[in-house]
Amino acid sequence: RVFRERYLQKPFYTATLLHPYRYNEDYLVDLTGTVAELDTATLRAPVVVPLGSPITVVGLDDTYVLARLPGPMPLVRLRVQTQRGTLDDPARELAMVLSQEPPLQSVHPDMQAVIARQEVTRGMTRREVSMSWGLPDKITSVPGSTGTIEAWIYFDRRAHVFLDNGMVTNWQQF
Q1: How many alpha carbons fall within 13 Å on the CB side of residue 94?
Q2: Spatial CA neighbour of 127 closest among 152, 149, 160, 159
Q3: 57-94: b (≥16 Cβ within 10 Å) or e
């Protein structure tokens, strides 16, 4: 009930660039990493939803938070990891893709133009990378001498983005 009061029919903005998967007639944004782990290739939808697009949560079921974008777009299913627990659990996951304020307002002015051009550069934070390129298909992490080193893998861009303690240090095409 608390979830419904906080999220249903409330206006939000997309907090990242979204490049959803096709899911029957709908679109799927997978916050669990499950789709990337499948053996079969799941096709991306032929649409990219820009950062800061209006989005409204319209429902939920056992696996998905259901949302609508303006216009004749199909339903967007947000697959969340948390099925049970407190409201804070799914709220933390949804904060990766939903924002109550236009998301670029909270970014350092030097990074705003980079994000608007959908580019990645050294020194970006995890959040700024996801705003620019969307959530990665897969994340691998290993302990490093100065903290955690992550490789964010974007299959559709055929790219790896490397982060050291949450900051971009490099990227490469594969």
Answers
A1: 26
A2: 152
A3: beebeeebbbbbbeeebbbbbbbbebeeeeeeebbebb
DSSP labels, the chain: -HHHHHHBT-EEEESS-B-PEEETTEEEEESSSHHHHSSSPPPBPS--B-TT-EEEEEEE-SSEEEEE-SSSPPPEEEE-S-SSS-THHHHHHHTTTEESS-GGGGS-HHHHHHHHTT---TT-BHHHHHHHH-S-SEEEEEEETTEEEEEEEETTTTEEEEEETTEEEEEEE-
CA 121 from chain centre, in angstroms, equals 18
pTM for this predicted structure = 0.86
Q: What is the pLDDT of residues 2-55, one digit of tens each?
A: 788 889 999 999 999 999 998 888 899 988 888 877 756 678 888 899 999 999
Indicate the residue type of 148. Answer: T
